[in-house]
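A quick aside before the break. I want you to see a complete sequence-to-structure record at least once, exactly as it would be stored in a machine-readable document. Don't worry about memorizing anything.
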Amino acid sequence: MDINDLRSITTVLLFAAFIAIVAWAYSGKRKQAFDEAASLAVGDDDEVPRGGKGRSIDY
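That is the input. The structure line, written in tokens, reads:
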């Protein structure tokens, strides 16, 4: 076994890990969790940004 065999094995293992992560991300079991996480960024804010001409906006 030389270094090229080790590189080939590493490439195959990393590709398998990539496929496993993609399968996990697109599985139906995770859809609700990902939908909840996606809605966090656009959730309702109670505060209205204040600011006007020449003033900074306080969040």
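Two observations worth writing down. The chain has a mean pLDDT of 82. The chain is about 55% helix and 0% strand. We'll return to this after the break.
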